[in-house]
Structures
1.
Amino acid sequence: MKELIKQLTEAYGPSGHEEQVRDIIRNAVEPHANSVRVDALGNLIAAKAGRKGGKKIMLAAHMDEIGVIVSYVDEKGFLRFQGIGGLDLMSLTGSRVQFADGVLGVIHPEDRQSYKSEPLLSKLYIDIGAASREEAQSRLGQAACFVRPFAGQGQRLVAKALDDRIGCAILVAALQQLDDTPHEVSFVFSVQEEVGLRGARTSAFHIAPEIGIALDVTLAADTPECRKLSMKLGDGPCIKVADPGLIAHPGVKDLLVRTAEAHGIPYQLEVLDGGTTDASAMQISGSGVAAGCVSIACRYVHTPSEMVDLRDVENAVRLLVAMLKNRVEL
Amino acid sequence: MLLEELSNAFGPSGCEDQVRRILARAVRSQVDELHSDALGNLIALKRGRGREPRLRVMVDAHMDEVGLMITRIEKNGLLGFRVVGGIDPRLLMAKRVVIGGERVPGVILAPPIHLTKAAQRAQVVGVSELAIDIGATSDAQARECVHLGDYATFATRFEVLTEGGLRVAKGKAFDDRAGCAVAAALVDEEYDIDLALSFSTQEEVGLRGAQVAAFALRPDIAFALEGTICDDMPKKADVSPTTRLGQGPAITLMDRSFIADHRLVRLLQETATQQGIPYQIKQPGIGGTDAGAIHQSRSGVPAVALAVPCRYIHTPVSLLSMVDLDNLVRLMKAVLHSLPEGWTG
């Protein structure tokens, strides 16, 4: 599983540019799904048909990551940019970004002192080493993502884009391990979550599931002087109760809790005070969907070095597989 | 000229009737079906010559413009208002407006310079402190021609500024009557695909018309046509002009509302290059268009936005190059002719 996580997190995939990630996932899921397709917006949907008597369940993890898009090339060949998704302004300076063709750029502020007192995106530029506008002009409109190698230290994993390649890896593993299910399960690897849950919205409309569960990261609050939240690395997958975009369906939340307890899988309950996930779009799709979310506690979300605990990841897979194996009533 | 008629027409968001009538008249004889839906979108369908099932292509342009709405009729006959869509309050004072389809003329009040202090003049007067003066001396007199909830638009009339070169035209509401003029110009040729034009309502207040039009039309792919930001005046800093006048139609790769489908972007770029039509890439990340609503419709619709650069949009007067506009018509026609082969899906 570590190898898959490494491959997924090191791939290039800012929102709207998920092709590389999709190819990796497609290869991993194709032998295990009854059908695999790519829809109009680029979502990859792997379907697993079940025995009779089950529910129609949609599981979603997003393939895209935050990144930047070049908005202007100046006379000297420096690139100005806009964010794709919510950038962490503090971690941008000194970061390296990579374009689809592998070209690297360095992010730097015009003036370090004034950026410290007032961090504004408009005061940053990307330097790809170009000497003139002509040399860099083709970059206009191109997207880039952050670059960092994956690292595993004991049970802790550090990488860029664990948000949400870790969710993708969990779904892939769950599909691989799910030999038999009563349910009709759609494993959706969604696009454009970071810019507005856009892929999950259209795929949920198409699938029209009864139950929708997102797999995503959540903010861990176990670091020095951090915000007051309860989620911790290593305490088990988080079963979402609420975030600003979702009040989890109580039946889905209870189903996950019951399943975890029945199988001795550690879990923590999650109430998040910022951000949301694909479950928010699923919940209000069509005539409505019973939606919930399983999250992995993650430190330093939306920076180039996100950190999760591998045991939480493995337990999330166990939780999903256990839930999908049996009939469910909400 | 259709653009002139469209620009002069009265059509703030939710009050697009005049624009709809003009467009219906312009396209009626060359389309197979024409109707308006529950939200006032004008939908024109032109069936293709190709074999069924045919690719269904939605081309959207919004009919509405930013404007004002009367919210108070004061005892002294002055009219309080709010803005409909995004208008910078600094632009409002002393502008000529017309109220309602009957075009009741009025002026937004402004204190004379003799009575204001320098510090006062450096301040922005908010919309709530402004009013429209229609010359009425009492609320009773004002009510004879104006009602609460009536809309107002700027009184700007269309004019061609230069006959040669970029053929620059001046007018209001080029966002998005420029797109409407381009979309209407597409129907005089036959295509293999089914063309569904949506002249949409209420874009400026939240992409509302296009959302339901796309739901009803179920297109396979979509093009949103716009009049867009053009900030190409000389500047001190080396920053983006967003688009440049006269440099060709602008292709949007990403804005606040959507990320363009790469395949459609590539098709547009290749077609433009083949046909020798200039184009430019709009500064990514800025603005939003109906493509935002359309691409999220139902199971998702690959979409792209194309625009005529317009200086000073969302103000009482903007400028565009009719060369850019003609080039957008050429590019759209060439792309529609390249379909369905050009779309690999």
Note: Chain B has two domains: 2-65+172-338, 67-154.
2.
Amino acid sequence: MTTNALSPMVNWQGRLLAIVTAALAVFGVAAVYGASSILAVQNGALGASFALRQLTGVVVGGLGLLVAARVDYHVWRRSAWPLMLVSLAILWLPFLPGLRGLVPEINGARRWLAIGPVRLQPSEFVKFVVVVWVAMLATKKGETVREFRQGVLPFLVIVVPVCVLILFQPNLSTALLTALVSGIVLFTAGARIGHFLILLVAATPVLWHELVNVQYRLSRMVTFLSSGAEVTEANWQIQQSLIGIGAGRVVGVGFGEGLQKLGYLPLAYSDFIFSTIGEEWGFVGGTVIILLFGLWIWVGLRIARGAADRFGMLLAVGLTALVGVTAILHVAVTLALIPTTGLPLPFISFGRSNLLVSIFSAGVLISIGRAGARARR
Amino acid sequence: MAKPEVRLTAVGIAFAIGIAVLVIRAAQVQLVRGSHYAALADSQRTETVVLPARRGVLYDRNGVPLATTQESFHVGLAPNELRNPAAAARLIGSQLGLSEPEVQRALRRRWAYFDGPFSSAQVHPLRRLRGVHLSPVFTRFYPDPDFARSVLGRPPAAGRPAGGIERVFDSLLAGTPGRAVVIRDGRGRVYESPSRLSAFPVGGHDIQLTLDMSIQEIVENALAEAVDRFGADGGDVVVLAPESGEVLAVASRRSDGSAPASAFTTVFEPGSTAKIFAAAALLVHDRVVATDTVYGEGGRWELPHRTLVDDHELDVAWITLDQAIRFSSNIAMVKFASRLRPVEQFGMLRDMGFGSPTGIEYPAESRGILRRPRKWSGTTAAALAIGYEIAVTPLQLALAYAAIANDGILLRPTLVREIRRADGSVTYSHRPEPVRRVVTPEIARRLRAMLRSATARGGTGASAALSTYEVAGKTGTARVAGPGGYVPGSHIAVFASLFPADDPQLVMIVKLENPRGTYATLTAAPLTRAVLEQVLAAQTAALDRSRLARGIPPLPIPVVPVDAGTVPFVVAWPDTSARPVRGPRLVPDITGLNLREAVRRLHKAGLNSRVEVVGDIVVRSRPVAGDSVEPGGMVTLFCARAGSL
């Protein structure tokens, strides 16, 4: 079970996943170009500057995918603890004095790590590490995850501090996503549903505190709960997102023809890129994108089901959830189904950290699927 | 490991539900509510804007622009968009002529707006600045704002009605504004989108007026000077081209400096200038022959209702019709006119255009007053013969004289020579529009001869005579009627003239109200001469110089049979009375004069001139003042700008 690392054979699931990933990533470059070119030109840059940066992410991510697909995924199980320790260290950086240059404040948050000209979002990588770490520990615990003190509590000791550190960047949505994906892995591993309910009740005061104390989140929440009300600054974003998607109607207004990006829809190339897609490609195009993600999730879960071992299954579920949940939540935000959060659409939204991690995750999934196929033979 | 399989299935089902919810929601937003959102999207980001059309240009008859439309700009400023506020503030301040505090105040606001409008040259350096937003507007520009102001008028604007030509031809000048649908972004900025232009703006028609800039300028200046010099309450001058009915110049001026269009709108009693029309009626109806005479009553004739007085002493007791015109005898004219039936007298005045609007392209026009014979009183016939109980505008009078100049055909007057579309194609070109034939060419010639005699030596209009060409004309000094009869000491001096007398190219009416010096001979006639001398000196194309030079053979002098006891007055032509002496003449002192006046003086002295150094004021001449030169010799002028002295 550990000797399949160098086999070049990739099963059909792996190929399908690679094709869907590539399709989404390439479409993403075009979508980013369409949604950002006017803004880029207005800011005095080359019209394609966003798209070119995204393209470098796709190329680097593609290389990462090839490497990850060929590497035995058990390497992640072995390196889970070191990776987690590094992650915790990086997440501490914003709270240390004298590191403004390394961890600059952008738009009121310190989510980015500036290394030379490259700006990374550590929390994107941390999400991956958390999934690896939870899968590793759940595999090690085996049936013990059904207990609380010996099973669930050790996870909380690490995952809760990680989430809190991300929360304090501040980045509530990523913190919640990290917790949710960890929960899905634990759920698959067999943790009791009662324990999740207890944790949910325990977390409620913290979440409430966060929502009420940070004004923009509260106004987003109020906006969401009163979406029929008159247009204010608070619900402007979501209203514009709906106008854009709605105006796309059946087949959309055509690639690049969308007008919501002309200052109406903020972050049309990242946090609201599905709105741009919906406007330019209509219901047909939007549904195709949603179904491609559905296909990606389906393949990911099939790989999990056919994984060669418990770690492979849990890692596959975690990575599938990492991409799938993010995608579903992003689309849900643009369709005003949940309150506005800053979640990217994996493979498509502008932002290379998420792009790299998402594509890399696909590579790891391919590796798991290949091992599973060999094991069944 | 049955448990993980179940849990995996549960995760799969959760994802499936999530994706199904997304697709259903997308269908609701895009398919069910799609049209609603599409309408919202359109309404928030498209805007129909009106693209202003360029207003047509007004030109003088030679193509000199009198009113043009220029693109100018309002300037908007968004201080937060400025890259370098300090440098931008300096540039904006200096380019727009704003004070330092004004600019600083603007910089503190979120959005500042400078109405201007500012010229293209002013805003050009600001185009490259981020944060400066220019909005173009068309503004009307008058190279000389006071030039023919009442005639040109002004286009309609907020709170001000239009006037003059700008009003009459507003629909032609205005053009058709275009329409465009523009895309507006979230910050309100507008994106030009030529493909959504729904209608191109069509520029207005250009109009070439009949006004001659040089003559108009001469007339305006001469009138202003005359009003000032004679202390008159006001005055009007109309200059017509008799063969076409084109108004070459029209100027009005009040003593307070204002210039209403009174040449078209205010009426006066023409006095002696109307005697020629009574003469015309007598000739048309064949009620008089050249030898007929009436008794002059020694210059004072008591009638039942009024006393007629002749101001000019005549050395003959019996007066012919020609003499009655020449010496402007009221008594003789009343006596001659009594040979006419009222309908004949009325008919001639009506045929001359009095009592009806002329049809000039001006927003307001007076039709004058001419009563029908059945409303006449017992004195009307006598009054009409000498220009009372009739009210005319200076324009009407000019047209009637133009009919005499034009061999008896009355023309409709016009201010418009040509109208062209914005693309240059001509849509209207003025042709003389005859109204009617008033008198036969022979009678018109006789009338001209009478008028010519009036400007000859001894005639009432002699002070209008030029040294070079002959002028035909008639003076008139009318008392002014007030509410209770004629106002003592109040009078109007008029001089109607044809130039040159034998083949008229200009008809001019000069009218002064209450001038010191009273008689038209002393006021309106010299003003006429001053204008004509300057027009001759000016480089204007309105005069056909080849026709002037040709020296058309004189009309046959009417052969007046010599009657026993009377010395017939023989009208000499060409008039030699004012002919300058032959032989070398002295160069007048013209230094310090303005160029036009200098050329006029030289012309008067029978010398030609040539300008070597152009400017406003003559600084020296060659040969210098006092040197003697052959007649027609050349004097070279050296000028300087008025400011540089």
Note: The domain at 585-644 of chain B is CATH 3.30.10.20 (Trypsin Inhibitor V; Chain A).
